[in-house]
Amino acid sequence: MFSPEGPRLRELAVQALSSVERGYDLLAPKFDHTPFRTPDSVLDATASALWRAGPFGSGLDLCCGTGAGVDVLRQVCEETVTAVDFSAGMLDVARARTRPAGPPVTWVRADARALPFGPVFDLVVSFGAFGHFLPRELPGLFAQVHSVLRPGGRFVFPVVAPPRPGSLTHGMLLGFDAAMRVRNAVRRPPFVMYYRAVRFGDWERALTRSGFLVEYWALPEFGWRRDGSPRVRLVVARRPEA
Fold first, then answer.
1. At what angle do helices 20-27 and 9-16 cross, to 10 degrees?
2. What class is the 38-162+199-238 domain?
3. Proportion of the chain in helix, strand, coil states, percent, rounded to 5
4. For residue 69, which phi and psi values (nearest 5 degrees)?
5. If you compute the radius of gyration of the chain from its CA atoms, what whole number of angstroms results?
6. HSE on the CB side for 14, CA within 13 Å?
7. Model's pTM, two decimal places?
8. pLDDT in tens, 4-32
9. Consecutive H or E run containing 20
10. What does the alpha-carbon distance between residue 14 and residue 115 come to, in Å, rounded to a whole number?
11. Which sequence spans correspond to the domains of the chain?
């Protein structure tokens, strides 16, 4: 949950009543102290899995936020790392927290749906960003990722198994999404942030439609569900060689 260093309720209310871009500009200084940031355990497990598959050349952190994914890329990429986000506030915080060790990092302010790059990356990662995109936007978003990868390049992101229907977590996520839908029905501009709008099948269909070959890597650090499926896995989408 929120740490004492995180945003106060009033700050969250102001952010939620703003646009997505303005809201994250305001949230950026305290973002790392909120539950919205991807946990270090997921980042470390992703880095370990990519290290076993690498090394890679150039990497891109898509919707980088405060740069947690940049740290992952700098562990597995040997050449350069690029981070893109449309929030200037997030980029400022990410730039300030970057450690000196590792490949150089280029920070780019841009919309993920219109990436200003050619096919120059071997690896693209993204952490916790897809709740800011509606299901109908996914094919275009993934087509953009496909266009900036070299042939054979990979697009990787972690997914957590959905909570059991009827559980407290499931109810909280549905309640959050319902509150956001009400907010967006009565106020403009919208603040797109839904936890349940994009489902696993949406990702797979959109990735396949965009030309990717899709596979899944279990992250055994998080264990297994009763049905034998992993609690957390990596979606690994590869741009074909030809």
1. 160
2. alpha beta
3. 45, 20, 35
4. -70, -25
5. 18
6. 9
7. 0.87
8. 665 566 666 666 667 777 777 777 677 76
9. helix 20-27
10. 29
11. 1-36, 38-162+199-238
